[in-house]
Amino acid sequence: MKIQNTEALATSEMRRDALAIAEAGYAAIDVGAAFAREMRIEGEELVIGETRRPLRGRRIFFVGVGKCALVAAKAVEQILGDRLMGGIALDVANQLDIELATILPLIGTHPLPSETNVAATERIRALLETCEADDLVLTLISGGGSTLLALPEATMTIDDEAALFKELSAHAATIQELDTVRKHTSRARGGGLAEAAYPAEVVSLIVSDVPGNDIEIISSGPTVRDDSTVADAQTILDRYEIAAPATTAFVETLKDEKYFERVTNVLFLTNEDGLEAMRAESARRGYVPTITTDRFSGEASAVGREVAAALCAAAPHTALLSAGETTVTLGATSGKGGRNQELALAALESIGDDELILPFASDGHDNTDHAGAIADATTRRHAAARGLAAPDYLAAHRSYDFFTTTEDALIVGYTGSNVSDFIIALKK
């Protein structure tokens, strides 16, 4: 079970249903379980899904990047055993206390890049550059990899990149815009890892945290040929009237097809896996489920109100399920919160007595130690009993404080997975 405070939250039948549906979603996107399900050795072949790769006489290396790297590394070690020559797993945290025997674990900073990330990226490139034509490189690319794979040109500092990221985030730039810029500020993104591994064969397993699953965007596409240009990156900065620091050095991404001829990019896990599992669990519990979208976007508060309105108009026994990623545009001052909690707080204003909305983060962290929050009549009663006005907390972007006080936050902890956010909306 992923949810840590189920007992405290499960005070009604509808809440118990919502929590069970969320658990089904978390189970479906479990990276370790996915490896056990999709990867195995048969004789002298490595089977990955429907494909087979010969193993005889080949060295095998692993490189994992992002919020799923360590979980994946542990699974790969268990499957490959002493066939694995070595590797590196660069993650944002090791909150699961994972111990590795062959793969080197490295921890970088997130969401802002640092010299720690640069040093780790240099080690990854150095490892890949030792690979030869007969070698097989397995990579696991997951959310958070853009920040981790920091390798700017010599004239550009890591502070320059951090400044660009903060400016774009403050302007509520989309993940597509953010990563288009970031692909041109690091020699490890936009196909950079594929180039480093050339001429070895690369099988890249991608855990998507990007609405629409564009593999050029997920972690800035380190094993994918990139079609964007430096001019595209500059256009995005111009759109938001952002002036890059004077020492910023944009780099063109690799366009030569030869670096990608022996690269196979596989969508390994997406939010669709979670949505399908939640659909099945909703139906099992007597709801008529509809997956409304796998790529919602927009301002969190606006999306919250839209979901609440759709739920109000829905028939009884409806479950509306969706996935995607919202943004929160902060004002001059703001408190502590996250986009899922903000969405729940906005929905709370108009939620019906027989309705519930639960937005939550697949990685277990909604910019805080909360994964999300429940918005229902019970939450509203808790707020009234404590004298909390939801509109005031919403205006101040203090969703964390609100749900901490009402005790309606979802506590999950580090999941080792990351496939965007989910929304469960139920009506009795």
Describe this structure in words.
With 428 residues, the chain is an alpha/beta fold. The chain has 2 domains: 6-28 and 287-427, MOFRL domain (glycerate kinase, domain 1); 43-269, 3-Layer(aba) Sandwich (Rossmann fold). It is 36% helix and 20% strand. The chain has helices at residues 6-9, 13-28, 31-38, 69-80, 115-128, 145-148, 158-170, 175-182, 192-197, 230-239, 271-284, 300-313, 339-348, 377-385, 390-395, 399-406, and strands at 39-42, 45-48, 51-54, 60-65, 84-91, 103-107, 136-141, 201-207, 263-269, 288-296, 318-324, 355-361, 372-373, 375-376, 409-410, 421-427. It has a 6-stranded parallel β-sheet, sandwiched between helices. Helix 2 (13-28) runs antiparallel to helix 11 and helix 12 packs across helix 13 (339-348). The longest helix is centred in the first third of the chain and has 16 residues, at 13-28. It is globular. The model has no long low-confidence stretch (mean pLDDT 96).
Average pLDDT, all residues: 96
CATH architectural designation of the largest domain: 3-Layer(aba) Sandwich
- As for the number of domains, it is 2
Span between termini = 25 Å
What topology, given as strand order, has the largest sheet? 6-5-4-7-8-9
- What is the CATH superfamily of the largest domain? Glycerate kinase, MOFRL-like N-terminal domain
CATH fold call of the largest domain: Rossmann fold
